[in-house]
Design goal:
about 40% helix, seven-stranded mixed beta sheet, alpha/beta, nine-stranded mixed beta sheet, Polyamine Oxidase, Chain A, domain 2, 3 domains, globular, FAD/NAD(P)-binding domain
């Protein structure tokens, strides 16, 4: 290499949010050289925790909750890293305020507003720090904003801005672990991306990108003593905070319900980005006034923290600011590879399951890590069945268990969506979240069983289809129809959905649209399952030939 030639790294990961950090950790664990490039001067992306100077509490200004029953990846990662979690405080009544001139209505929400959500003890920054601590020294570049990617054939040339200067990196493969809209807005390509790919990047909404979050810390969670959960929903035109929740470090599992420790109330602003600009100077006072209206004079005088994510250029795109918020749904093709397996798109918005959440970021990282570092199919885990028939039976049992649990998972997704006020196309989103979870779990089981499914007696590959594909898909036969029927039966008896007629009793047209969504998700899963089998068979054949 010439003295002035830029070193060539195997993989450049752009974006040090949870997806990028988890992927970098996986690459390091598998011995693949990488560099992690981040535009901000800090790690974590949308995961941001501040420490209150007055109370010492860790307050999450970004992602806060995860649901262990429906989000297995983050639950497993926290256990692996030795990080504790605490239940979201939900006990007590929730307040509903629909008229600014009247008192709030107290309602009891069976099962809690947040449906079994948990929070990372000490804030989401604990997870960011734990992931970063696993990376080798010198592998992370902060304050380096990617501006352009040039395709040089055998490698990519990346132009990044840092301290007002432009520098160059070279990598054989590139992972853009960013929300797709940010890639479209901030990164130029030479040659330009194909128009269909550019359109795919512009389409998925960036989850929560244009929201603003407020946190107010107090010496104690006084609302609990009055029987309040800290949950409140404000639904009138003058609302400042549309949704309020208990953000205290103190858990209700502690002695005395945490009443002797500091407390905090969090909330999402009801104003859109342009309205928040107009009210910017008065927002702190207006937020305090609303909290006092809900919880009395003790809500005054707290230490307030406010972050408008719409102002974060490395989170919120122009499209996210200018269009109504929507559930992120990325095109299936964004989950594949581009430029001959050299370019990948990550970030939570591209996930099959958990899109927009921390779970989705981790799933995207796992998907790309598997593509960049294929497992050696000859060396399986100790518990992998010895024969192909046993592995097929094991897969069938796993699918049966997932099918049995799916209706309950659907109900949990409905409750979670209602608690986050995501009521547009609620049934579709809850069903797609359910099948996404089941398919994601099935693919994880498939990968674990792959050593036994890649033997010589596993069946041939003919016209691109693996011999085991029909057998492994058989346990899913009739599942879409059965799941839809059970979901509709639940909807028709749900008091919570009675206020949403389109979902309470969907008409024939909506049911057809839902069925088409489920069919599309099924096709993607079936193709992915077959693709993984074919890929493993090809690697196994190549290893046998070399031997």
């Amino acid at each position: 290499m010439a003295a002035n030639e830029v070193p060539l790294v195997e993989v450049a990961v752009v974006g040090a949010g949870l997806c990028g950090l988890a992927l970098a950790r996986a690459l390091h664990g598998r011995g693949l050289p990488f560099v992690l490039v981040e535009a901000r001067d800090r790690l974590g992306g949308r995961a941001l925790t501040v420490r209150c100077g007055a109370t010492g509490q860790a307050l999450d200004l970004g992602p806060t909750w995860f649901w262990p029953d429906t989000q297995p990846r983050i639950s497993a990662l926290l256990t692996e890293l030795g990080l504790a979690s605490v239940p979201q405080h939900d006990s007590g009544d929730a307040l509903w305020l629909t008229d600014p001139n009247r008192e709030s209505e107290r309602r009891n929400e069976p099962g809690g507003v947040h449906a079994g959500a948990r929070r990372i003890a000490g804030g989401a920054a604990r997870l960011v720090d734990a992931l970063a601590a696993t990376l080798p020294a010198g592998s992370v570049l902060t304050g380096h904003a990617l501006r352009m990617i040039r395709d040089r054939g055998a490698w990519f040339e990346l132009q990044v801005g840092h301290d007002g200067r432009t520098s160059t990196l070279r990598a054989r493969r590139v992972v853009l672990a960013l929300p797709p809209r940010l890639v479209r807005e901030h990164v130029a390509f030479d040659p330009p991306l194909p128009e269909p790919l550019a359109d795919m990047l512009a389409a998925p909404s960036t989850w929560m990108a244009a929201t603003a979050k407020s946190l107010t810390a107090y010496a104690r969670p006084f609302w609990r003593a009055a029987g309040h959960s800290g949950n409140a929903f404000v639904r009138h035109p003058q609302a400042m905070l549309g949704e309020v929740f208990d953000a205290s470090d103190a858990s209700d599992d502690e002695a005395g319900g945490g009443l002797s420790r500091p407390g905090a109330l969090g909330g999402f602003l009801a104003l859109d980005a342009s309205q928040r600009k107009s009210f910017a100077r008065g927002l702190p006072l207006l937020i305090e006034s609303q909290l006092a209206q809900l919880y009395g004079p003790e809500a005054e005088g707290g230490r307030q923290y406010l972050l408008d994510w719409a102002d974060e250029v490395w989170t919120c795109s122009r499209a996210d600011r200018e269009h109504p918020p929507a559930w992120p749904q990325a095109d299936t093709a964004l989950r594949g590879s581009w430029f001959g397996g050299r370019l990948y798109f990550g970030g939570s918005e591209t996930a099959l399951h958990g899109a927009g959440h921390m779970e989705g970021a981790l799933e995207s990282a796992a998907r790309i890590a598997r593509a960049l570092c294929p497992a050696d199919v000859r060396n399986g885990a100790a518990n992998v069945p010895a024969t192909t028939d046993d592995a097929v039976a094991c897969f069938a049992r796993a699918v049966a268990a997932s099918r049995e649990a799916a209706p309950a998972c659907y109900q949990q997704h409905v409750t979670r969506l209602l608690s986050s006020q995501c009521t547009e196309q609620l049934t579709q989103h809850a069903l797609l979240a359910t099948v996404g979870q089941v398919y994601s779990e099935a693919l994880a089981v498939l990968d674990a069983l792959m050593p036994a499914l890649s033997t010589d007696d596993a069946g041939p590959v003919h016209l691109g289809r693996h011999g085991l594909t029909p057998t492994l898909l058989t346990p899913f036969q009739g599942w879409n129809h059965a799941l839809l029927d059970k979901a509709l039966a639940f909807n028709s008896t749900s008091c919570a959905l009675s206020n949403f007629p389109y979902d309470h009793r969907p008409d024939a047209e909506l049911q057809r649209a839902i069925a088409l969504d489920l069919a599309a998700a099924w096709r993607e899963f079936a193709l992915e399952l077959n693709g993984r089998l074919v890929e493993a068979a090809t690697r196994a054949g190549a290893m046998t030939a070399r031997a």
